[in-house]
Every structure is written in structure tokens, then in C-alpha cells.
Amino acid sequence: MKDPAFGRTAITAIPVIWCVFAILFFVTRKYLDWPGTELIRPYVYLALGASALPPILLVLDVVASRGGVIGTKWFKIDFSKAVLDQPDVRRESFALPDNIVSPAR
To answer: Is residue 47 part of a domain?
Structure first.
């Protein structure tokens, strides 16, 4: 983890996500009469799942920065072989050329 503020941001994002989902729930419940009683439980599960993403990403960031391995019998994420902190290693991605329009003649 290169930025210590990332940890605080990830932890403070949890109650913010809960508040956003609560506000959306009460506003849509009052004005649109949604979700119905049968959708309240899945809505809560959705809110809990969304609030679980920041800590999961925080743990993955810590493991990746230390070159660790996360695995079960079904999958394995190995960060020990990835070295992207070296200056000569670049990760290429899709990019447009600097001048995509042909020059005027």
C-alpha cells in the first residue's frame, strides 16, 4: 500500500455507502413505492455487498504491494511474479495516436 490515506478512504467509504443506499431506499420507498416488501432483503444484501468492496480492494492492495499470494482450491491470485515498480517495465494500454487526423495538404 503506497498511500496510507487509501486505507482511511476505504474504511470511511463503508458508512458512506450505507448512507447512500439508505437515502435511496427511503426516497424511492416514499415517492415511488419501491422496493416492495419482497425486495427489501435483496436490497439490504446489495448494500452490504457494495460496502464490502472497499475493504476487499484494500486487502488486495496490501497483498499486491507485498508480493503475496491469495488462493483457494478454486482460484489463485499470485502477486509475487508481477514487478511493476521497475522503471523499464511499462503496462501498455489502448491509446489513440497523438495526431489521428491526417495533416492538411
So the answer is: yes
